[in-house]
Amino acid sequence: MTFLLPLAAEGGIIENLQKSAQETAEVFGVNAWALFSQIISFSIVAFLLHKLAYKPILNVLEERRKKIAEGLANAEKIKVQLAESEARVQEILTKANVDAQRLIDEARASAQVVADRRTQQAIAEAEQIIAKAREATGIEREKIMAELKREVGRLVIDTTSRVTGKVLTQADQKRINEEASREVAA
Asked: Which domain of life does the protein's organism represent (predicted)?
C-alpha cells in the first residue's frame, strides 16, 4: 500500500479525494471540530456506560443464569431423590403387606389350632358328661331296681300271706324276696 501513495500523489488522486471530502462536508454541514468533540463525548459516554451500566447488568445476568442453572440442577436432584423415596416407600409397603399377610396366616393357623383344641375339649367334656350320666343312670337304675325288688318282694309277701292266710316267717320272706328278685332281674 505504501507504493500506491506515491502513485496517487503524482496523478492528483489524493487532492481530488480531499477536495471531494471538503465539498461533501460543506454540503452536509459537517464541522470537523464539532464532529471530533462529539466523537470524544460519545467515547466517554460509551466508556462510562460500559464500566458503570453494562458490566453490572452483565454481572447480574450472569448471576441469574448461574442461579437458574443451580435451580435446575437442584430440581433434577430433587426428582432423583423423590424417585428414590417413592421406591423406598413402595419397598416398605410391599414388605408391610408381606408381613401383614404372614401375620394373618399365622393368626388363622393359631385360630384353627385353638378351635381344634376347643373342639377336642368340648368332645372330651361331652364324653365325660355322657360317662357321668351313664354312671348316674346306672346307679339310679340300680337304686330303682333295688327299690323295685323290695317293692315286688313286699307285694309278693303280702299277696302270699293273704292268699295262704298264714303269717310268713323271716326265712320264708327272705326266700320269696330272692325268688322275686331273680325273676325281676331276668
From this structure: Bacteria
Amino acid at position 136, single letter: A
Q: Is the pTM of this model over 0.85?
A: no
Task: Give a three-class secondary structure readout of the chain.
Answer: CCCHHHHHHHHCHHHHHHHHHHHHHHHHCCCHHHHHHHHHHHHHHHHHHHHHHHHHHHHHHHHHHHHHHHHHHHHHHHHHHHHHHHHHHHHHHHHHHHHHHHHHHHHHHHHHHHHHHHHHHHHHHHHHHHHHHHHHHHHHHHHHHHHHHHHHHHHHHHHHHHHHCCCCCHHHHHHHHHHHHHHHHC
Model confidence pLDDT, tens digit, residues 128-159: 999 988 888 888 888 888 887 777 777 777 77
Which set of grid coordinates corresponds to residue 78? Answer: 430433587
